[in-house]
Specification:
The structure is a single chain. The protein has 222 residues and is mainly α. Among the domains are: 1-47, no CATH class; 61-125; 146-180, no CATH class. The protein has eight helices and two strands; from the N terminus they run H-H-H-H-H-E-E-H-H-H. It has helices at residues 2-18, 28-47, 65-83, 87-123, 130-143, 163-179, 189-192, 207-221, and strands at residues 152-153, 159-160. The chain has a two-stranded antiparallel sheet. Strand 1 and strand 2 (159-160) form a beta hairpin. The longest helix is centred in the middle third of the chain and has 37 residues, at 87-123. Keywords: Coiled coil.
Length: 222
């Protein structure tokens, strides 16, 4: 097996080196994309493609010795099929691989059904009622977006990780932004006398508009 891997790797290196071209590219990104496509194509042709691994299931409640044995047997039949170079033997090895694959799938299905039946029986009892909530919480965690911000740094440099503290920090920040005028910072309030600057865009008010408004106020006073 080790020599087989070394031969494949050497073949991969030789093909990658032989596949290099001296073409002129517009920029480094175009050159990188061309090289990456070439490497991936040669890797597929030389090393082949692997099927999805079951490594993520090995901590599941249905993963047992029988399932492990069947899956390993299927993987071994697949390796034998890939390593075979004679057409006369390939058909026989392909049949063995299909049989091993069918057996592994059957073992996984039976193990899952058995594990779920036992779990449902436990959920019917009062003592194991909390298992249902553990499953619900686990599914909720898997649905959560891992990109959500879960920490923030306060003004004094402390890192806040609790949701309550983060919410209060944002509340303080926006309160300061919307309620404190930065334009008047450093100016004595006594000189402003309550006057606030209007920094927003507004239409131009003509003297005729002011005259009409004043006349309307005079009429209401009478």
């Amino acid at each position: 097996m080790g020599q087989y891997k070394r031969d494949k790797l050497q073949m991969f290196r030789d093909k990658v080196i032989a596949g290099r071209d001296n073409a002129q590219y517009e920029d480094a990104n175009a050159m990188w994309e061309a090289m990456a496509d070439n490497v991936k194509r040669i890797a597929r042709e030389t090393l082949g493609m692997t099927s999805r691994s079951l490594g993520s299931h090995r901590e599941s409640c249905w993963w047992n010795d029988e399932v492990q044995h069947k899956v390993r047997a299927k993987q071994e039949r697949f390796r034998e099929l890939v390593r075979c170079t004679e057409d006369a033997q390939k058909e026989s090895l392909r049949t063995k691989y299909k049989d091993a694959k069918r057996e592994a799938r059957k073992a996984v299905s039976e193990a899952k059904n058995k594990a779920y039946r036992e779990m449902y029986k436990r959920l019917e009892t009062k003592e194991e009622e909390h298992d249902m909530f553990k499953i619900a919480k686990s599914r909720e965690r898997r649905r959560q977006d891992i990109g959500v911000l879960k920490f923030i740094k306060s003004v004094d440099g402390r890192v806040m990780v609790k949701e309550n503290d983060i919410r209060k920090m944002w509340q303080t920040y926006f309160s300061d932004v919307f309620n404190n005028s930065h334009d008047t910072e450093g100016i004595d309030n006594s000189t402003i006398r309550g006057e606030a600057k209007n920094n927003f865009y507004c239409r131009r008010v003509t003297w005729m508009r002011c005259r009409d408004l004043l006349r309307g106020w005079e009429g209401r006073k009478q």
